[in-house]
Amino acid sequence: MSVELFGTPLSQPCRAVLLFLLENNIPYTYTFTDLASGYHLQPRFQQLNPNRYVPVIIYRKPGTPDFVLYESHAILRFLAKEFPCPSISYPSDSRQAALCDQWMDWKETTLRKGLSSLFSQSLKDLLRSDHIAMSSTNMLPTATALAIVHRCLTVLNTHFANNPSFKFLVGGEAPTIADVSVVCE
């Protein structure tokens, strides 16, 4: 069994998948996807992910066809089920899994909105590249993005203040893939 990860260290979703692979000692190869040069716009990459985003994995298991998967949370759930590991998990209990999903969805729809606007604008200015996936028309004004991030950090602080025994988002003795997703943001 092997995993090929297409990604870039500049991408939070890629960092989350990479952290999961590393922490759980899952064998993988890394294919650097240079967004600044437009690697993700090439036909070969578009065959893997028509949305042209990273991360993407190709999972190879002897006797089965290659399995291509994109979207970081789908990848994290798949890897956690395919390679069950106690150090970072996806809960088997349906309520715990729902809470894990809730935090990953919250991160994607709320926290990421503010942080990605701030990061993408800085990166686009630094690289002076038109290949960055988020166009400037989708970026929030800085003040709006900062307000979103502040509100999200307040949500996290309140969650842990209201659950003082929690070391991790869903509780428990070890982090879940939700913790990995939020921490890597």
Written overview of the protein:
The chain is α+β, with helices and mostly antiparallel strands and 185 residues long. 50% of the residues lie in helices and 11% in strands. It is built from 6 helices and 4 strands; from the N terminus they run E-H-E-H-E-E-H-H-H-H. It has helices at 12-23, 43-48, 72-82, 94-127, 142-162, 177-184; strands spanning 2-7, 28-32, 56-60, 67-70. A 4-stranded mixed β-sheet has the order 2-1-3-4, with helices on one face. The longest helix is centred in the middle third of the chain and has 34 residues, at 94-127.
What features would you highlight for this structure?
4-stranded mixed β-sheet; 4 strands; flat; alpha+beta; 185 residues; 6 helices
